[in-house]
Amino acid sequence: MSTHNSVLTARDGEVFTVTINRPQVRNAVDSSTASALANAFQNFEADDTLHVAVLTGAEGTFCAGADLHEVADGRRTAIEENGPGPMGPTWLQMSKPVLAAVEGHAVAGGLELALWCDLRIAARDAVFGVFNRRFGVPLIDLGTVRLPRMIGQGRALDLILTGRGVSGEEALQMGLVNRLVEPGKALETAVELAQILARFPQHGLRADRMSVYEQWPLSWKEARHNELKHGLQVLASGESRAGAQRFASGEGKHGSFKNGPGD
Question: Which of 9, 26, 51, 166 could be disulfide-bonded to 198 (CB atoms 3.0-4.6 Å)?
Answer without folding.
Answer: 51
